Structures are given as C-alpha cells and as structure tokens.
Amino acid sequence: MMTGAQKMPRDGWTRTQAVLLSAGFLLLLCGSVRGGSDGNLQVPAAVQANITSGEDLCKETTQSKGNGPAIPAFNYASSGDDWTGDCQTGKQQSPIDLPTTDNSTLGSIPSSHLVRFGTITASGNAVLRLEIDEVELLSSNWSTANFQIPVCGGDNIGCLESPPDAPVEYMSASIVNLHFHANSEHTRNGNYYGAEAHLVTKITLNGKKNLVVFGTWMDVSSNKTNEFFSGLQSYINDTSVISVGSVCSPVPENVKFSIDNLLPATKTYYAYRGSLTTPPCTEGVTWIVFTKPVQMSITQLKALYKSNAYTSQPCANVTTNALCNILGARTNNRLLQPLNGRTIKLGSYGPDSN
Ligand SMILES: [Zn+2]
Description:
Belongs to the alpha-carbonic anhydrase family. The chain is an alpha+beta fold. 14% of the residues lie in helices and 29% in strands. The two termini are 24 Å apart.
C-alpha cells in the first residue's frame, strides 16, 4: 500500500503528470509518461471550467498537494529492495509473513476491541485510476455506515497494545482509496496469494491523521470470477495502461461500488503495526489483514498483472508464486520485511470464524 497520513497514498505522485482533457470525453488520461521528467501540461482555463469533480479527483491525486514530504519516485525493478530512507532503516516495515491462525505466537484481540465492519460505498464521481503499477479506485463520495475503528488509551489504534479490559472508544474512519497488488504483499505461512486488495482508511486523533489499512488476499485456486472486480474491470482500458502507463477513467455518477462485496464474509483478521509498502515507507500504519481470502479468476489476475509496470521485476526473480511465473507476469508487491519482534494479533468473531 502506499500513502501516508502526511501524504496521500499514491505510488508515484512525483512522476510526470500530463493531463489530456477533451470536454465531453469520458476518458481522462492523467499522467505519467514513463521516464519523463517534469512535463506537467497546463490545463487551459476554459477546459478547467469543464472539469468534473471526478476528473479533478484524478488530477489531484497525480500531483503533489504541496503539503507533507515529497514522495520519491520509485519502481518495482528490485521489488523495493533499492528503496531508501525508512524503507531501508525502519524497524516496523510492511509487508510481513503472517502465520496460520492456530499459531501459538498470535495474541488475541478481545471481542470488545474488534473493528466494527459496517458498509462502505464509493458513489458519484468515482474514478478508477490505473497508474503504471497499480489499479486504484478513488472517489469524491465515499460513504460509510457503522464502520468503526477501536481506539484504546487515547491513541492506541486497534487497541493492539491494550489489556482485554481497557476502555475503548470507537471512531469512524474515512476512506482514502482502494487499490491492488499482484502478487499479494503479505504472505500466509510463507505462501503468496495471487493478489491483495488494500482499502486505505484514516482516522484523525488529536489533529493527527493515522492510517488503518485493510488487506484482503485474492486467491485464484478455484478460478472463480470476483464480481466486485468485474465491476471495476469494465472501466479499465488495458491497452492504454500498457502504452501510456496511467489512465484515469471517470465512472458514471450512478455507479456505486460496495466495498463490502469485496471483503470476505468472515471478518476475522490479523492486526499489527507496520508501514506503507511504498516509499517513503512511513511507519505507524495499523494493518488489518483478513485471515480468509476472497476468490478471483486467473483471467482477472492476468488483468492485474498486465497493469504492472514495465520496470517491475519478472516473477521468476522475486517470488515463489508459481502461477505468476507461469503467466510471465510482472509484479507490484514489495518484498517481505522482518518482523523484528513485533506482535501479531488475531481478531476473531467466533469459534468458527478463523
Ligand atoms: Zn497497497
């Protein structure tokens, strides 16, 4: 995942941005001609007046907002091994390998401290953005109901460091984006899944923005079509992604994306403290990774692989995911990071929910 509380979550904000607009066109190309330097095209005022909020959203996320540290340019040529700063020196980095749920080292989160999953919907002026190495759903109109994050002791998000009887306050989280990695970033007992969806959310405590990222593994072993992903796919132009590197595709205002349809039915989750998985690899991110994967088809996984950067590393060099090798794909998952003594907790909703 990318994004920091201090910066928006986008891989590659500092990449060249080019915005090609034509009034009335549904397709907005925003961005990043590979390898370019600062070639931002100025959008004429007359055209600017016609920019819909969806298009604004696309443009905004491809350009620095001028606050917070700059996000360094990066790629997946070494799957993150060559990233600098906190990516190199941090001690609480992501992703990590997660154990099976019966592992004795897992701490447990009491039922009184579990995340409350309500409904999460993107509607109106949503934008499906495909950058060089990532499929990302943005929206100017995310809505949530009864989706709440537990906080203990004032700033202990997720209550990961609290005793079972610690008083808890529930806070509403706002949605930043939904995006995908292929292969998965987190592994389970050393094994990769085909892909991993990241729902990036944030809650504000004492004026500080804190990220809580929800990871969902996407498994292709049953080759079953993922209906949620199918809905996104209809707005993806694969050819353009390959040739241009970045496409912003405004979604008609009446189209809604219910994130609940992507998340696994069983909400039992791993939780730990980690980082952004893209530069600048900022720490302090609360990670919630569901123990149960959702299913997707091999054809859908291919579409994700296809959206990965030309500079990304061929699977054969970086991963044990056999399917990735077979497909000759390239990947946008960061290499696993050391646990360094961190505790992983399990939040379980019932005896059969692991
Ligand atoms: Zn991510």
